[in-house]
Design a protein that fits this description.
7 helices; 67% helix
Length: 229
């Protein structure tokens, strides 16, 4: 089998002011009075649901999961249309996938504006490798399929280096490993689709199930880099 070397809630510190009920008769001057000490302020709490870091992680998770399913849909349509990438159905599927790429890049750009276009250019570049692998496997062109795997290997390395150059808290090797897992699982789904194996659907789901881990890694590094909670 091939081997693809692969983002407060401010805790409210409320001082409780206690007032005693006024008595109708004035208390004797020598009667001792007791004051109740104010309670200590509560420690601030971090909102891990609505924080900027959590919102970034959630948005990345959704978009990356969509990426897997949209890629699967485009490849499935291309196979259904006999490998013709120019049919209206295939073109529509490819356009939806590219719109997702633009959305992922825009999310990265919301944190690092100067990195948005380089990220988009890089992200777009790996999608044709999956197409080439599909065409190679479907037509028996092993050289084309093998070259696509090699291209995905090289892409994982270059993408890791790109992300690390923007977010030093994210090691290039860790990002590379996430991309390798993405490639391995999606290629397995493509193989099943070409073979007409019903396991295709479970394998595509498995490929998508890895995206939350990728989103957590990326969002965590960005949050650390920008000081987000």
């Amino acid at each position: 089998m091939r081997k693809v070397t692969a983002f407060a809630g401010l805790g409210l510190a409320a001082a409780l002011v206690l007032s005693g009920c006024a008595a109708e008769a004035e208390a004797p001057a020598d009667e001792p009075t007791m004051e109740q000490p104010a309670p200590e302020a509560e420690a601030p709490m971090i909102d891990t649901v609505n924080s900027d870091g959590a919102n970034l992680r959630a948005a990345l998770t959704a978009l990356l999961a969509d990426h897997v399913y949209l890629a699967g849909a485009a490849i499935n349509q291309a196979l259904a249309d006999g490998g013709d990438l120019e049919t209206p159905a295939v073109q529509a599927a490819v356009a939806a996938l590219d719109e997702n790429s633009v959305e992922v890049a825009a999310l990265v750009g919301s944190a690092y504006p100067d990195a948005e276009q380089p990220f988009l250019d890089s992200w777009r570049s790996h999608i044709p490798f999956f197409v080439n692998y599909t065409l190679g496997q479907a037509t028996g062109d092993q050289e084309l399929a093998d070259q696509a795997v090699a291209d995905l290997n090289a892409y994982a390395v270059s993408f890791g280096e790109l992300i690390n150059s923007v977010v030093p808290e994210l090691p290039a090797e860790a990002v590379q490993a996430e991309l390798e897992m993405h490639a391995v699982t999606l290629l397995a789904a493509i193989d099943a689709n070409i073979a007409g194996d019903p396991a295709y659907f479970d394998l595509l789901k498995e490929a998508a199930s890895h995206m939350p881990m990728t989103a957590t890694a990326l969002a965590g590094g960005i949050a650390a880099n920008l000081g987000l909670q």
